Amino acid sequence: MTTRSTRRTFVQTTGVIGAGFRTILKTLAAPAVATFAGVRHVLGADRNEGLENEDVPAAGPMVGQVTSTLAAIWMYTPGGTSMKLTYKPQGAVESSTAKVEPIKTDDLNLRGRAWRALIADLAPNTRYQYEVAIDGKIAPEHHGTFKTAPVEGEPAKFRLGLTSCMKPKHSPDSWLLFAKDEPDLHLTIGDTVYADTTEPRWQWRHHLNYRRIEPFAKVIRTIPTYSMWDDHDYGPNNSDGTERGKHYSLDGWKRVWINPGAGTKDIPGAFYKFTWAQVEFFVVDGRYHRTPNKAKDDEKKTMLGHEQFAWLIEQLKASKAKFKVIVSGSTLDHSQNDGWRLYTHERRRLFDAIKSNKLNGVLYMSGSLHNSLAWEHHESDRVGYPFVEVISSGIANSKTLSYATIDFDTTVSDPALHVRVVAGNGKVREQKTWKLSTLSHG
Ligand SMILES: [Fe+2]
User: Fold this and answer.
1) How far is ligand 1, taken at its centre, from the CA of residue 114, in Å?
2) 105 Cα–ligand 1 center, Å
3) What is the CA(165)–ligand 1 centre distance, in A?
């Protein structure tokens, strides 16, 4: 894809560059709400942990959506009336200044300010360095780097890092291992905080709190990070589409991350898609429209909501990518009380759609389990080829403190993906490779 069309895609999905910063406020800002009526709080051991300094230190910078030519960076500062972000190719002399705009947070009662910086006209596959100045002062921890994406649609080798489930009271050291593995991009897919409420003021305080933990802070200021929520960052444990105040969660979520989008004009939710070289990711929202786990498992029961499900199939059919990765917090089979094994009708509809539409190179990635592994689903016959699921969960909330990396290589005649599961003790517990020819209909 050309620079111009890549830029257009970014504009369409984020609504931020080109259309001007007024658009950000229109499309991403929450309505001013004085109270958050009807939300459920679940009081637990983690509810208030570490929140006593909620408004004191900065959080971020965090690199969010990155394309081959553009990058977006999020930042929270405890005070200050101006933020400036300068950047340059690593090692270069001349710096440029990014466009910066405040993120509306009036309804969140924060003492500090949140900001979004947008950088355009970058070169593909190139590492940049940046620094953030608040009221003209640069703190040492407000420096970072990021590498832009390869050109969309062209062959490339790259490493995806996959994580989920993190709590401040658990060791953050796996984030150091994760950073050393140097993923080109990072997908963190649920339980990014355990706020256990749809109240965005609490959710934001949990996010700010976790972003101040140095090993995690290092990851997000150097690796483009994309997110999806699961139950604990959407609402209480195992929460679903019936949860009161879910629209507050969604408003807060859109402002605390910089993803390529959230829902469509007609379908609300946190879901979006994006492409990295020749791999397309369909990051679906398994909470906003979900029928309760305990409902009867019949035709009507849905995890994605029928409209988002239709969107997913349509997008998969339209995709030109070599690998098409469906990403969700919910596992296909391993979670006993909170995954697709309780939604077998919809799961079969998904598998059947992959077969009937002859979609090649589709695979699945999830979290939630508090363990990590890669396997082929036992109903792969329905799909027509081995249906691979990579589960990465518990990088900072499990016995294993594990995560996964996935190396994609589309530069070879038979493109491949190589999965590594890494435990908190640094041991690579599992390694598996799949070639596109084996993930294809004959
Ligand atoms: Fe979790």
Assistant:
1) 27
2) 27
3) 4
- Between the CA of 167 and the centroid of ligand 1 the distance, in Å, is 9
**Is the bond preceding residue 61 a cis peptide, omega within 30 degrees?**
yes
Å from CA of 47 to ligand 1 middle: 14
Number of domains present in the structure of the chain: 1
Q: What are phi and psi of 150, to 5 degrees?
A: -65, 165
Residues 438, 385 contacting (CB under 8 angstroms): yes
Task: Give the separation between CA 73 and CA 116, rounded to whole angstroms.
Answer: 6
Q: How many CB atoms lie within 10 A of CB 303?
A: 25
Q: Are 162 and 187 in contact (CB under 8 A)?
A: yes
DSSP H or E stretch at residue 345: helix 344-356
Cα of 43 vs centre of ligand 1, distance in Å, is 16
What is the distance in A from the centroid of ligand 1 to the CA of 422?
Answer: 17
Distance 189 CA to ligand 1 centre (A): 10
CA–centroid distance, residue 161 to ligand 1 (Å): 17
Show the domain range for 117.
Answer: 3-439
Q: Could you give the residue ranges of the DSSP H alpha helices within 18-120? A: 21-28
Tokens of 288: 């906003």
Q: How far is the CA of 410 from the centre of ligand 1 (A)?
A: 32
CATH classification of the domain holding 214: 3.60.21.10
Q: Ligand 1 center to residue 251 CA distance, Å?
A: 22
pLDDT tens for the chain, 442 residues: list them.
333 444 434 433 333 333 333 333 333 334 444 477 778 776 554 555 545 455 568 899 999 999 999 999 999 988 777 899 999 999 999 999 999 999 999 888 888 899 999 999 999 999 999 999 988 888 778 899 999 999 999 999 999 999 999 999 999 999 999 999 999 999 999 999 999 999 999 899 999 999 999 999 999 999 999 999 999 999 999 999 999 999 999 999 999 999 999 999 999 999 999 999 999 999 999 999 999 999 999 999 999 999 999 999 999 999 999 999 999 999 999 999 999 999 999 999 999 999 999 999 999 999 999 999 999 999 999 999 999 999 999 999 999 999 999 999 999 999 999 999 999 999 999 999 999 999 999 8
Ligand 1 mean position to 44 CA, how many Å? 14
